[in-house]
Write a structure and sequence with these properties.
By secondary structure, this protein is of the alpha/beta class. 40% of the residues lie in helices and 19% in strands. The chain has 11 helices and 9 strands. The protein has helices spanning 4-17, 23-35, 39-44, 52-66, 71-75, 99-108, 127-135, 148-160, 202-207, 221-233, 249-257, and strands at residues 77-80, 83-86, 117-121, 140-145, 167-171, 182-187, 234-243, 261-267, 273-280. Strand 3, helix 7 and strand 4 form a beta-alpha-beta unit. Helix 1 (4-17) runs parallel beside helix 4 and helix 6 runs parallel beside helix 7 (127-135). The chain binds glutamine.
């Protein structure tokens, strides 16, 4: 039987050769996942033997990681807003910069006890809906996605955090099927310009859902599609927080102005304008 240390050495070497920077840390995470051991146990007992079936499973995962399958898919989990979420192939992996939208929302509605009506367009893993319902315990929320696979994951994540009773998930095309008014609308739509997709990291380009990334020829197609819904569904005094890609703030603010929505900006931790905060203009 191989020892944990020998498996880790082999894995680290292979992952490094595959161009993965945090090779040793990832090897450890995968081995813990496969064996069910804690990180502490792995560090304390490096010479412990790993039973052959588990070693085989570990090597299979390693091969997937060498093929640049995102580590989050292999672990089946990723944290967002300090909340552990289930992720699977078929949903976009939550990214730290998307937390900028949660911060913007909290700033727009500082009263945590408010009975807000939330709408998450393109909910994916449900990360934004989960974080917001968690922060606003009296809020209710609707999450929409075109992808039934994504909605299944969002449902698991809402249930996992005890939020299922305050959320409704719908399969649809942005806000098309909806009526009524929402106080807070959030969206992290696909915004990568089509020509740039192939140049993304292999984890993203080859393994994450294109439907969650492809923003059309100029990256703005999804916003053109969803802005009319945002303008129609935003309650008086309501706020919409939209995630954007680098440099999209100007063109998107102009599109929003066409729907009588006024935009302000929020930057992410990297200093990139990552979120546009839209409110009805005075004529809206
Ligand atoms: N931030 C993501 C990336 O660059 C893109 C997510 C999106 O299109 N909404 O990988």
């Amino acid at each position: 039987m191989p020892t944990a240390a020998s498996l880790l050495r082999e894995a680290t070497r292979r992952l490094r050769a595959a161009g993965i920077e945090a090779a040793r840390a990832e090897a450890r995470l995968l081995l813990c996942r496969v064996t069910g051991w804690s990180r502490e146990r792995l560090l304390a007992e490096p010479e412990a033997a790993v039973p052959e079936p588990e070693a085989a499973r570990f090597r299979a995962r390693l091969a997937e990681r060498e093929a640049r399958t995102p580590i989050a898919y292999l672990l089946g989990e990723r944290e967002f807003w300090s909340l552990p979420l289930v992720v699977r192939p078929g949903v976009l992996i939550p990214r730290p910069e998307t937390e900028t939208l949660v911060q913007a929302a909290l700033e727009a509605f500082p009263e945590r006890a408010a009975a807000l009506r939330l709408l998450d367009l393109g909910t994916g893993s449900g990360c934004l809906l989960v974080a917001l319902l968690h922060e606003y315990p009296a809020a209710i929320g609707v999450g929409v996605d075109r992808s039934p696979e994504a909605l299944a994951v969002a449902a698991v994540n809402l249930a996992r955090h005890g939020l299922g009773a305050r959320a409704l998930l719908l399969c649809g095309d942005w806000g098309r099927a909806l009526e009524g008014r929402f106080d807070l609308i959030v969206a992290n739509p696909p915004y990568v310009a089509r020509g740039e997709l192939a140049g993304l990291e292999p984890e993203v380009a080859r393994h994450e859902p294109r439907i969650a990334l492809d923003g059309g020829p100029d990256g703005l197609e999804a916003y053109r599609a969803l802005l009319p819904d945002v303008a129609r569904l935003l309650a008086p005094g309501g706020v919409a927080c939209l995630e954007i890609g680098r440099g999209q703030e100007g063109p998107l603010a102009a599109l929003a102005a066409g729907h009588r929505l006024a935009a302000s900006q929020r930057t992410d931790l990297a200093g990139i304008v990552r979120c546009l905060v839209l409110r009805r203009g005075s004529l809206g």
